Amino acid sequence: MARLRSKLEIEINQFRLDGEKNGKNRKISIKELAGMVGFAESTLYLRWTKPVTFQEDEIANIAKLLQIDITTAAQWSQEFEPGESTPVTEPKYLSNRENRAISAEQTTTDASNSPTSAHIKQKPLTALLLVPIVLLLGYFFLSSNSQQPTIKPPPTYSALYHGTAIDLNAEDVSQALNFHSKLYNYELKNLKTHTVGEDITLAGDIFWSHLKQEGEKHQQALFLASGKHVGDTVAIVYEITDEARSEMWIGTAVIHMPRSGPAEGYWLTLHNEEDPDAHGPYAIGSISLNR
């Protein structure tokens, strides 16, 4: 089943498909659309799936692009129209659906003018008994014709695991050979958090530098994360996207994040490159955030 789509997503995708509206005289890509509203493609996908994470400046950019007021854009981001599970379609498809509706109407009209119809009119009692049946059959017929083509679900994968989990002593961790040595420095900026109930999202910029290859020269990338905020504990899965190098890496983090004051925690990820000073693929580090 297709995911629910907000009215704002439907409207902006119609803008993307209409060459006259977008000024390109052709359909534009999601990447081009993201550039026109001033934020990354991955951020745009995050906003569609979780409209509550929209920032005020992002809503303002989309409203300006669609030439509507900000209040309307914000309202549309939370509205789901009837048929919201229906993907945005091309005009040709809508025309075919209308043709099927016209054909069904003509079939009903022809049936009403047939000799069988006249015979039914001559027997009022029989006609009254048949009316509910005809209506019921007509409902099922129209419902089957109006259904949208089903989207083939993605392939699934299943596995069965058994094992154990234990705490490690601090000295065991320090001697573990599965960890990289220190290869990178990181700095998080403009990190915005948004919590709804126990669901939390984080979005901001991360600047990183390779200590052995590029010294202190920082590179900018996009940091996105989502997870749970239970009490003062945040557990997230994050992704870092470096669009300039077309690279992405993922990891997990557990952070002590009370409702006020600083936040402290640890992150864990995997590195693909070889480490000249160690043998393992894992990289672990600390997080320190100030409000």
Quick structural overview:
The chain has 291 residues and is α+β, with helices and mostly antiparallel strands. It has helices at 7-17, 19-22, 30-37, 41-49, 56-66, 70-78, 91-112, 115-121, 124-146, 170-175; strands spanning 184-196, 199-210, 219-230, 233-242, 247-256, 263-270, 282-289.
Characteristic terms for this protein:
alpha+beta; 291 residues; 25% strand; 7-stranded antiparallel beta sheet; 7 strands; single chain
Write the layout of secondary structure elements.
Layout: H1 7-17, H2 19-22, H3 30-37, H4 41-49, H5 56-66, H6 70-78, H7 91-112, H8 115-121, H9 124-146, H10 170-175, E1 184-196, E2 199-210, E3 219-230, E4 233-242, E5 247-256, E6 263-270, E7 282-289
Antiparallel strand pairs: 1-2, 2-3, 3-4, 4-5, 5-6, 6-7
Helix pairs in contact: 5-6
Write structural notes for this entry.
The chain has about 290 residues and is α+β, with helices and mostly antiparallel strands. It contains 10 helices and 7 strands. Strands 1-2-3-4-5-6-7 form a 7-stranded antiparallel sheet, with no helix packed on it. The longest helix is centred in the middle third of the chain and has 23 residues, at about 125-145. It is extended, with a radius of gyration of 28 Å.
Overall spatial form: extended
Number of strands: 7
- Amount of helix: 25-40%
Uncertain runs are 83-121
Tell me the span between the first and last alpha carbons. Answer: 41 Å
Query: C-alpha Rg, in Å?
Result: 28 Å
Secondary-structure element string: HHHHHHHHHHEEEEEEE
Estimated structural class: alpha+beta
Major β-sheet annotation: 7 strands, antiparallel
- Indicate the mean pLDDT: 76
Going across the major beta sheet, what is the strand order?
1-2-3-4-5-6-7
Q: Please indicate the percent range of residues in DSSP E strands (runs of 2 or more).
A: 25-35%
Number of helices: 10
